[in-house]
């Protein structure tokens, strides 16, 4: 069982961000955290304790978790402590401008052992273009602080496919990242989503498959192996156990406004609106997921990462298609699992097999 905790507050709204986050509702922080703890207790009692489960990983995301004082997380950690597995991975996202040395140290003392920095770029002009509120120096310093404090895992997010990006400009970003004490790198292609400042501005994004392949190859050559379409790790131990849990279709609790839970073959959606969530944090809208949809998700997710897909999921017709793909070296079979040789083709391969 995984646990995701959503913090919806941000100092500023990035121009590409479609996540449930607010820059103008900081006055609701106290009431929000109070409501979040209520939902957390309820979910742990009903989905973990009563089912004799344990929490394998915790991920605090947002929004910007570092906009909340570390002291305000203390009760959350007290609540979840009895439910945690011994070797639990606990990750917090953080923005370089708000994740001070003191904040990072206090979060580490609470039990966080992995930190994920939303750096996006080390180029100050690109950061301004994306609407980021930090600069290159603050990002470098934040990562160095995390290492000094003793975090076991340090991730750096980088965005590519932005207007004016070239292989040379991206190499500069990645070279800076490689010079820092990171254990994990997430390289995301810019997506344009409705409700963002970049929506209706298609010129800000470049679709360049050659650039994607060049980036993947460059990251791999610099000692980070790709284990998912956007994720790279220095070694097996540095892979994100939490994200891997999603890709393995494990159950997860989603706590907070707009967070999503997945329990008993159904998704649970709390209120997305902050005020509504505070009024009733135990409200959930239920979406039942049938076996066919679960199969489709397992195939799509398994082909996007090194986890692969169990062959027992496929019928005779689908296995014929898979064997065809094997002949053309598009996929391979090993230990009763299907594996993808090219993560960028994962969606097309899944659709071909399942059609």
Please summarize what this structure is.
The protein is an alpha/beta fold. The chain has helices spanning 29-49, 74-80, 101-110, 124-130, 136-149, 167-178, 209-221, 241-247, 274-279, 291-303, 316-327, 346-354; strands at 2-7, 55-62, 84-94, 114-120, 153-160, 184-189, 225-228, 231-233, 252-255, 261-263, 266-269, 285-288, 309-310, 331-334, 337-340.
List the helices and strands and how they pair.
Blueprint: E1 2-7, H1 29-49, E2 55-62, H2 74-80, E3 84-94, H3 101-110, E4 114-120, H4 124-130, H5 136-149, E5 153-160, H6 167-178, E6 184-189, H7 209-221, E7 225-228, E8 231-233, H8 241-247, E9 252-255, E10 261-263, E11 266-269, H9 274-279, E12 285-288, H10 291-303, E13 309-310, H11 316-327, E14 331-334, E15 337-340, H12 346-354
Helix pairs in contact: 1-2, 3-5, 6-7, 10-12
How does this model look, in words?
The structure is a single chain. This protein has 355 residues and is an alpha/beta fold. The chain folds into two domains: 2-247, TIM Barrel (Alpha-Beta Barrel), CATH 3.20.20; 291-355, Arc Repressor Mutant, subunit A (Orthogonal Bundle). Helix content is 37%, strand content 22%. The protein has twelve helices and 15 strands. It has helices spanning 29-49, 74-80, 101-110, 124-130, 136-149, 167-178, 209-221, 241-247, 274-279, 291-303, 316-327, 346-354, and strands at residues 2-7, 55-62, 84-94, 114-120, 153-160, 184-189, 225-228, 231-233, 252-255, 261-263, 266-269, 285-288, 309-310, 331-334, 337-340. The strands form three sheets. A nine-stranded mixed sheet has the order 7-8-6-5-4-3-2-1-9, sandwiched between helices. It has a three-stranded antiparallel sheet with strand order 10-11-12, with no helix packed on it. It has a three-stranded antiparallel sheet with strand order 13-15-14. Helix 3 (101-110) packs parallel to helix 5. The radius of gyration is 21 Å and the shape is globular. The model has no long low-confidence stretch (mean pLDDT 93).
């Amino acid at each position: 069982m995984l646990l995701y905790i959503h913090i919806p507050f941000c100092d500023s709204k990035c121009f590409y961000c479609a996540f449930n986050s607010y820059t103008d509702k900081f006055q609701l922080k106290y009431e929000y955290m109070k409501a979040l703890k209520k939902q957390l207790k309820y979910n742990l009692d009903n989905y973990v304790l009563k089912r004799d489960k344990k929490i394998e990983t915790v991920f605090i995301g947002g929004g910007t978790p570092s906009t909340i004082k570390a002291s305000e997380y203390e009760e959350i950690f007290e609540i979840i402590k009895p439910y945690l597995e011994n070797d639990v991975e606990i990750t917090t996202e953080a923005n370089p401008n708000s994740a001070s040395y003191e904040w990072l140290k206090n979060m580490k003392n609470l039990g966080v052992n992995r930190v994920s920095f939303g750096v996006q770029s080390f180029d100050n002009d690109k950061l301004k273009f994306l609407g980021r509120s930090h600069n290159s120096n603050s990002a470098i310093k934040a990562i160095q602080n995390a290492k000094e404090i003793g975090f076991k895992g340090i991730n750096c997010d980088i965005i590519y496919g932005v207007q004016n990006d070239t292989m040379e400009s991206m190499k500069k970003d990645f070279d800076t990242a490689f010079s820092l004490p990171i254990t994990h790198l997430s390289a995301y292609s810019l997506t344009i989503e409705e409700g963002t400042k970049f929506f209706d501005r298609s010129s800000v994004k470049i679709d360049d498959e050659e650039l994607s392949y060049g980036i993947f190859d460059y990251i791999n050559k610099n000692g980070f192996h790709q284990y998912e379409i956007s994720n790279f790790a220095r070694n097996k131990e540095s892979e994100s156990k939490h994200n891997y849990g999603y890709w393995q279709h494990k159950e997860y609790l989603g706590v907070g406004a707009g967070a999503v839970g997945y329990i008993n073959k159904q998704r649970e959606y709390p209120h997305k609106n902050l005020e509504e969530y505070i009024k009733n944090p135990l409200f959930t809208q239920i979406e039942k997921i049938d076996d066919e949809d679960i199969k489709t998700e397992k195939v799509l997710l398994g082909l996007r990462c090194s986890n692969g897909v169990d062959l027992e999921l496929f019928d005779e017709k689908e296995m014929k298609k898979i064997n065809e793909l094997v002949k053309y070296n598009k996929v391979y079979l090993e230990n009763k699992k299907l594996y993808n040789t090219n993560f960028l083709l994962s969606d097309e391969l899944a659709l071909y097999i399942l059609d």
